[in-house]
Amino acid sequence: MRTSHYPIGTPGQPWGAEEKQQWLEQQQIKRSYFDEVVSKINRLHEQFDVEQYGVLDYPANTYPVFILRSTQWDANRPTVLVTGGVHGYETSGVHGALAFAERHVPHYRQWFNFVIVPCLSPWGYETVNRWNPYAIDPNRSFYANSPAAECALLMSYLERHEFSFIMHIDLHETTDTDNSEFRPALAAREGTVNTNWNIPDGFYTVGSSEKPTPEFQRAVIEAVRQVTHIAPPDEAGQIIGAPVEQEGVIHYAGRKLGLCMGMTDAPYVTTTEVYPDSAKTSPEECIEAQVAAVLGGLNYILQNELGQAVTN
């Protein structure tokens, strides 16, 4: 379904610096990263080594960005990476990462080390945006010499520490604003015609087509099913334009597309997608779905890689 032209730019012509500046001038601070995210990080110092891995110095504000590393680190344990807020507007990803860190890491660190990045894009969090201030999508920018500082800072930190991850779960949302704002803006920026997709009502995951793990994805879906509903395919048998591989699971080429889930060599990777605009859910339930997704992945690895019985 085509939509009307986005109010910035000329149809058929990609944006230049003038259009990007016009877009930036329309963005407004709507909530506080410091009050809502950093304050929660500051309460986790007893459970984690909290490290500032960089600063995003933007005109609106200067944003420190943080990593939580679990205490009692043991090099003999497998290490898990949890990322949230790659798209800052996707609220439950940020608060799901924090809720998992606070409530479940004390139990699971007997088997795993954890690296948790609650909010990669604090400017996006504050302005409820998918892009950074330079109209760059961080979740298409995880590659060498990235133009997105959000990505470059994190990749540099991970490279310096030479972590070997067994699992990386990247917490996201699919929202109605994908069709009303973000896809039209993307088409305008690129000088193309926007075609909206069907917004799926429910939770789904995006696995990597470059290293598919169907049983792992199924374990994540089954864990989340206990919290919220799973997205059905549309009439074409697809979710957001991609074929459904199994219930609630589609595939993207994570590394080729520069997605966050493609930046490590972890054998088990997935991107979660919660639908917060559903009449069947609530903000709290969306956060719980993100937590359940992480637990589902961990429990699968405990049983199938470590040979441990699961005791939540």
The amount of beta strand, in percent, is 15-25%
What's the CATH superfamily, by name? Zn peptidases
Supply the helix-strand structural class: alpha/beta
Secondary-structure element pattern, one letter each: HHEEEHEHHEHEHEEEEH
Number-wise, the strands total 10
Low-confidence stretches: none
Mean pLDDT: 96
What is the end-to-end distance? 45 Å
Based on CA inertia axes, which overall geometry fits?
A: globular
Taking all Cα atoms into account, the compactness measure Rg is 19 Å
The CATH architecture comes to 3-Layer(aba) Sandwich
- Give the helix level as a range of percent: 25-40%
Could you tell me the CATH topology label.
Aminopeptidase
Q: What is the number of independent domains?
A: 1
Spatial sequence of strands, sheet with the most strands: 1-2-4-3-5-10-6-9
CATH class: Alpha Beta
* Number of H/I helices: 8
Q: Quick one: biggest sheet? A: 8 strands, mixed
What does the model show?
The radius of gyration is 19 Å and the shape is globular. The strands form two sheets. Strands 1-2-4-3-5-10-6-9 form an eight-stranded mixed β-sheet, with helices on both faces. It has a two-stranded antiparallel ribbon with strand order 7-8. With 312 residues, it is of the alpha/beta class. Helix content is 33%, strand content 20%. Helix 3 packs across helix 8 (283-304) and helix 7 crosses helix 8 (283-304). The protein has a single domain (17-304), classed as 3-Layer(aba) Sandwich (Aminopeptidase). The chain has helices at residues 17-25, 33-42, 91-108, 122-127, 149-161, 177-190, 214-225, 283-304, and strands spanning 48-58, 61-70, 79-84, 113-117, 165-173, 204-208, 238-239, 242-243, 249-252, 268-274. It contains eight helices and ten strands. The chain starts with 16 loop residues before the first helix and ends in an 8-residue tail after the last helix.
